[in-house]
Amino acid sequence: MIQVNNLSKTYNGTTVLKIDSLEIKKGESFGLVGNNGAGKTTFFSLLLDLIQPSTGNIVNHGVQVNTSESWKPFTASFLDESFLIGYLTPEEYFYFIGDLRGQNKADVDALLATHEEFFNGEILKNKKYLRDLSKGNQKKVGIIATLIGNPEVIILDEPFANLDPTTQFRLKKIIKDLADNPEITVLVSSHDLQHTVEVSDRIVAMHKGEVVKDIQTSPETLKELELFFAV
Amino acid sequence: MIQKFLYLEWKAFIRSASFATNLALKILMGFVAVYFILIFLAVGIGVFYILKKENMDPVATVNKFMIYYVLMDLIIRLLLQKIPVLNIRPMLVFPIKKSTIVHFSLGKTILSFFNLVHGFFLIPFSVVLIIEGYDALSVVLWFTAVYSLLYINNFINIILSNKDNLFGIFLAIVAILGGLHYYDYFNITDYTAPFFDAIFNTYWAFAIPVMALVGLYVATFQYFKNNLYLDAGLSSKHDIAKTEDLTWLNQFGTIGTFLKNDIKLIKRNKRSKTTVGLSVMFLFYGLLFFTNSIEAYNNPVMHIFAGIFVSGGFLITFGQFVPSWDSAYYQLMMTQNIPYKGYLSSKWWLMVIATLVTTTIASFYLYFGVQVYLTIVVGAIYNIGINSHLVLLGGAYTKTPIDLSSGKGAFGDKKAFNVKTMLISIPQLGLPVLLYWLGSKYGNPTIGLSLVAAVGVIGFAFKDKAFSLIEKIYKAEKYATIAAYKQKG
Q1: What's the predicted TM-score (pTM) here?
Q2: Which residue in A has a C-alpha nearest to residue B235's C-alpha?
Q3: Nearest CA in chain B to A130
Q4: What's the ipTM?
Q5: Considering only residues 27 to 56 of chain A, which have any Cβ-Cβ distance to chain B shorter than 8 Å?
Q6: How many domains does chain A divide into?
Q7: Nearest neighbour of A100 by CB, restricted to B331, B338, B482
Q8: Residue A47's CATH number
Q9: Residue B98, class by beta-carbon neighbours within 10 Å (0-12 exposed, 13-18 middle, 19+ buried)?
Q10: CB contacts, 8 Å: B244 with chain A
Q11: Whether B375 contacts B433, CB under 8 Å
């Protein structure tokens, strides 16, 4: 369970994020939508203790993230390509993450084998370093790397951007499978309302740093969101 | 059109990251620049009179060694002069003629520092020649021809850019030629001096390099114009990647995981490779001290200074940029289940191993006597015991993101300059020199060496304490470091 308490982030007097209270239940599939500058990435960065909150805090499974580091073993994330190590091959990167998460080579290989279809033959054994892969293929590597070591919380920022249509379908299936597992909480942010509606049981819309909508997904959700964002 | 380009160039110049440093540093850089300009001017003016005084014909002597001057220029260009082709990319889709783009890009290199700097030597030298009564026309033609040769280097470098090993090959050629010359086996200048003399003594020979330059410009122009495509001349080179397991490092646990990464980091990135090359140069830096070739260096206190440098080249050049080496993916590191201690330990081990290897290689200094090598070994002990901790400590305050793909900046990053790092680096060199000086003043050099070594051993004994302290500082600096690394370039 993730609990947000009186959280705010201010830069030079401008408040970019302000969430008084938000609770994300264990096993929930949580979708975050909003325009540029709505505060999606800021929220994820706070959740990962990459920036300091101005006020308040986030508690991830009983661990307050800006005071203890024990949330790290069960939390996996991919925000952008700065989560990739450019001079490694994809295999080396997966094994490196595996090492850090206590998975041996065989464990990692087994996981990679189940996602062979997602890689579409463009990732493994391709004699390329991560820095030389296309944006889409880099994203594939980053997303699958978050699945290593059975994390309980998975955070993906804009996972659908830059992916080709087929891969978007496959990614949706991966996220849905994760969402079906009651042990795993998935947090996904996106600009794409339809994708988010398809993979999330709960959708929060943000605007200028504040939560403006919080809805359980239903057949009408997409309409409601479209109406809200069509200005 | 050219005006627009110039406008962009000006913006690129004044907004470049290296220009946006603080005022004090700008003034300092200004002084350094003026200093070098004055030195070049002094050489340009002085060389004539010095040679005259030594009873040598100034023109003939300069002509004789001109071949080395030209070759060294080419080598320095291959190593340092970058060709800014990539800036062209955004221009391709605009309504600008391709030939304009190419002319401008090539023309821009004409004003490069690497070309202009020669003027500070050649112009005063030529002026002195005219004042001293040499035929003005001959001097001007000679000047034109020599400058043409230097510009030929400029364009050779452009055509040969993106080929990595050429620098080494050319350096080897010059070293061999120089060696053969020095030991009187074969003298290249016997064959080239007549050519340079002809440039000076005849009115037609100057046309050879000038024509060659024009021809080369046309060839370069055609080459680039025909290759002005994203997948041809403007493509960036992709290395063929090979997955390496380095399984033998697994036995070291977490530290092994990071060591594996660090080894790949060093092997696969231009910047880190340059750094390793630089640390090899430090290995030979001691020769200046121990061969007694420079008088100011010829005292025992300076020798311990050399001892630190010889054994600690890698430690100094690599260590001062921990954790900036991982700046590109620092966010990843901070969200993974990483004990800071393991991360720092791996960097520490890397520096220790490198110091041990360097010290072993440095055993060739035994040629200068046991005392000299002992000084280096003591330097190594101090490096491992004290300096390894100090560079890690300094690193916590060094918030300069590193662009691994660029070799530039390995010679000292201006932005990495800050007061805290400066203060931390004082004991790196100052303390051993002071200890040695005290020891040898009130006892003998051996006591001095023992003092330095003893402090090194004490530092080693307090390794765990030092690490906890450094870890704390790294944690405190975490957010500032992440924010700084996000600002690229």
Answers
A1: 0.76
A2: A132
A3: B241
A4: 0.86
A5: 48-52
A6: 1
A7: B338
A8: 3.40.50.300
A9: middle
A10: 92
A11: no
